[in-house]
Backbone:
């Protein structure tokens, strides 16, 4: 069994939003109370409380404190589970020691089993934009209207999480347990694609197509700097500070959504056309640390190689297809035909010329051909003309230069993906 999450946008009335905010504050105080009790227990008895003890303590505190009684009983127990998991991660060396949380840092509530109900299903929109809406009732909070953009097995839901993002948007996440999909066997000839990731061309495919890097963060950088400067001038935790923080979070969320939407569409395109994906096993963190200039480090961060690789792998494995990572060492310098390493190739050289056999081709396309070869599948040796994936109307990312507004960043339309592909949350 695998755990999969379905995230949907939620809308609520102002009254329900205030109730949710109040309950988030109560859950934050309960978390801090459990942390304080744990510290006292360790100081007095030199021991830590088990998960059952923490759950029982959370229920006892809920009975004694009227503010905590606003929380559903299972939500209070889940607060204890969250603290226990944070403590265990600290013991395993995976995270820092749990510390006191502020209300603006505690942004989600989880209903593990009961306390929620979906009703009033209806269809909205026309044609490709047809979606469903449903009414979600959360015990002790109220009603939310959900936009259901994809189907999910309602009978297999194990928990429901309502989360308020820093931008103020509300999402509801349904966690589902599903059986593992069976991967295909490659007994017969399979369609294989190699994908080389880069800064100038975000992805170059071994079939000759490439995806230009829209650089969403770089195009929004000036706006982000202005919002960050405004936030730094506000008094910490004041109303104006919270408003400025929300505006900054909206801008970052806009950049993130643009990037993830692009990656999911690319993954949907490749997973529909190919049976096996060959990727570089890149050390993204090492690449960023070794960046010579600040601009290069920012562009490496903006390209988000780890995220695009994770989402491409998810799209293939969701369909039961294979993903094969290969070592990334010298993929750009190795000649596809003879295997000779061109040590004189620099980052400024965009054309690969083999000093041994004279093979001349775009360096990114050469690397995309080397990847399947390292995996044991030899692509055609005839060079093809590189062609970009057709663009889509812009998303609205802009930047200023010299007082003038630059053109909006291109949003890309990937063939075979007319509808937006949404992410699994979690």
Residues:
């Amino acid at each position: 069994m695998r755990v999969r999450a379905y995230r949907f946008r939620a809308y609520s009335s102002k009254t329900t939003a205030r109730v949710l905010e109040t309950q988030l504050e109560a859950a934050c105080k309960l978390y801090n109370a459990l942390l304080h009790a744990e510290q006292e227990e360790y100081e007095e008895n030199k021991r830590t409380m088990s998960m059952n003890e923490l759950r029982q303590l959370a229920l006892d505190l809920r009975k004694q404190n009227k503010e905590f009684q606003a929380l559903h009983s299972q939500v209070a127990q889940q607060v204890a589970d969250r603290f226990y998991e944070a403590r265990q991660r600290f013991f395993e060396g995976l995270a820092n020691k749990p510390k006191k949380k502020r209300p603006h840092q505690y942004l989600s509530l989880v209903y593990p089993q009961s306390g929620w109900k979906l009703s009033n299903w209806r269809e909205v929109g026309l044609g490709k934009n047809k979606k469903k809406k449903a009414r979600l009732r959360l015990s002790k909070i109220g009603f939310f209207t959900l936009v259901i953009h994809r189907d999910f097995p309602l009978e297999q839901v194990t928990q429901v999480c309502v989360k308020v993002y820093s931008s103020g948007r509300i999402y509801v996440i349904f966690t589902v347990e599903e059986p593992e999909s069976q991967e295909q066997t490659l007994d017969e000839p399979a369609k294989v694609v190699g994908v080389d990731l880069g800064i100038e061309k975000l992805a170059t495919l071994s079939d000759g197509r490439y995806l230009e890097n829209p650089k969403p963060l770089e195009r929004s950088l000036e706006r982000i700097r202005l919002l960050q400067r405004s936030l730094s001038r506000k008094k910490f935790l004041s109303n104006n500070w919270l408003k400025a923080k929300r505006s900054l979070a909206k801008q970052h969320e806009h950049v993130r959504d643009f990037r993830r939407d692009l990656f999911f569409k690319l993954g949907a395109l490749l997973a529909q056309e190919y049976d096996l994906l060959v990727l570089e096993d890149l050390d993204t963190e090492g690449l960023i640390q070794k960046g010579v200039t600040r601009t290069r480090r920012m562009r490496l961060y903006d390209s988000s190689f780890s995220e695009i690789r994770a989402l491409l792998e998810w799209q293939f494995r969701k369909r039961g297809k294979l993903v094969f990572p290969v070592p990334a060492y010298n993929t750009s310098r190795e000649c596809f035909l003879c295997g000779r390493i061109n040590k004189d190739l620099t980052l400024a050289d965009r054309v690969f010329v083999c000093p041994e056999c004279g093979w001349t081709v775009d360096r990114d396309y050469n690397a995309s051909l080397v990847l399947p070869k390292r995996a044991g599948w030899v692509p055609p040796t005839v060079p093809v003309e590189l062609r970009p994936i057709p663009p889509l109307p812009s998303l609205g990312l802009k930047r200023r230069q010299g007082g003038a507004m630059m053109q909006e960043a291109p949003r890309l339309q990937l063939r075979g993906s007319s509808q937006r592909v949404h992410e699994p949350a979690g």
User: Anything to note?
Assistant: The two ends are 16 Å apart (CA to CA). The CA atoms of residues 32 and 100 lie 6 Å apart.
